[in-house]
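Task 17 of the worksheet. Students: predict the tertiary structure of the chain below and write it out as structure tokens. Keep your answer in the requested format; marks are given for formatting as well as content.
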Amino acid sequence: MSTQSLAFEWTETNREWLIETPIRIACFIVAAVVIRWLLFRLIDRVTRPRVGREDGGPRLIKGLRERSAARTPKANARRTQRAKTIGSVLKSTVSVVILVWLVLTVLAELDVNIAPFIASAGIIGLAIGFGAQHLVADIVSGVFMMMEDQYGVGDIADFGEVIGEIESVGLRITTVRDVDGTLWYIRNGEIERVGNMSQDFAVARLEVPVAVDADLDRAQEVALRAAQRGARDSEIAAEVLGEPEMLGVQEVTSSHAMLRMTVTTKPGAQWGVQRHLRNRVLGDFDRESIKMPMQSWGEALAGPR
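Model answer:
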């Protein structure tokens, strides 16, 4: 083989390694950066909170949602937090996928056998999947929970064994503060059902007992008038979304008859409205001499005979 042929072969090899391969690698890097940028823009657009978005559903539900818009600052903060969390997860996933693709592509361009890397990654992924299956389940449940907006920070929710205010929402753990002040750490993968008491609107259920020998029709009229006046009081007027409704006698026992009323309120305000209206109803019962199912003071002091 002549010196000229060796020089020509050496030149072709160096051109492959010093010019063509670096150019292809640079093109792959540029393509990865551009794709990552475009996907990030798309994620930002998809996860950006939409103000004034119309939701489907019955007209009554839509009307109540519109009337509960007074909590807009809280709702907007919650929506922004959820959007940021979802966007962060999606961006991290995109970055990892693009980085893995870029590394494997560059190694292939450098004539490195990537089959062992792929096989090793599969074995490691399988081991991690078996060893951390609960962690994966928690994270997947957390992602779907955030995407579906099941609950958020500040909501009052029922998780089955725990009822309280949600203090933090993460991809793996949700923390809840119950009425006794205990802070509960709940794994998202273990949550089977959630009753959210702070979404869209709430219903204050007011139950008032009266004596069985009282005039029940008159008692219902007095209770409804008292609740209607109480709903217009300045203390709770901003929390009430509808007029009180008398449902009638809920139950009758040997000692009392239970009257039930309901009124639609803003989320989380139902308990305060209940207490206020109950106080107004009992005050009117006392003024109208409607008997309650209890002993008089004289009977109580006299005791059993």
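Marker's comment: The chain has three domains: 3-131, 149-196, 202-294. Residues 223 and 261 are 9 Å apart (CA to CA).
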